Amino acid sequence: MNFLVVGPGAMGCLFASRLKRAGHEVMLADHRPERADFINKNGLLMEGADGEERVPVPVITGKAPAEVNVALICVKANQTREAAESISSWLDLRAAVLTLQNGLGNFELLEDVFEKGRVLGGVTSEGATLLGPGHARHAGRGETIIGPAGPADGPVANIVSAFEEAGFRTHSSDEVEDLIWGKLLMNVGINALTAITRLKNGLLPAIEGARAVMRMAVGEAASVAHAKGIDLPYPNPFERVLEVCRGTAENKASMLQDILGERITEIQFINGAVVREGKKIGIPTPVNLTLTSLVSAIQETYDKRIID
Fold it and tell me: Rounded to two decimals, what is the model's pTM?
């Protein structure tokens, strides 16, 4: 298959390098020409349990020079619309658009830009940390689920097959909204806490205060999900978050990576989304509001931090 991976962040580098190594045609799309030039010259450098590997993947900053079967959107949620609009004018009308992004609203934003039916959604529990331009570490393995499943010979089936060939444990599902909410609760419990405490995922459950806040934040999000009729893909959300922390113990969560890099985070699409959805149906979410406010305060004051 021919893949266009939009965004050379940690997850973009991970999926692009693995798919390329498995024999698929892969291009990366980047809006920064200097970074694109660097990766075109040096390739993608991936670290993992098996050591380091450099994988040559072409990077484009404009129209793709070849046919694209699947556009995999790997940008931050606050960049989704801009990224989608940048490729919509030339992307083949037959190409599927797949988001595995964090947070709520990405699927709907993509459907605003592309025709309904072309957009696929899903979640991944793969963990990756960006170490530099085109340089990432695979920090934790997990499951990837995409949908709606569609026919046995349709695009989702082909993507599942390609992902499995690339070494990702993948299957399909028709319950896309349930999956997205299921992943949202994982991010609600982990991302903001790592950004505030600056701890790796695996340490959060061991810190009494962090564990207590995690339990309350996840509980609020689960209450909102249940009130909306969401069928979460696990029976105990808090225990599932603890499992993810253990499975990605050495991972620096994406929001922590953004804070360390002094970038805008996805807080408004994760904990902030829980607050907004809770307001719509009259469910209070004070812990998620507090986490959203704290992370927002941090990212708004990067130039005022006390260093010493």
Answer: 0.89
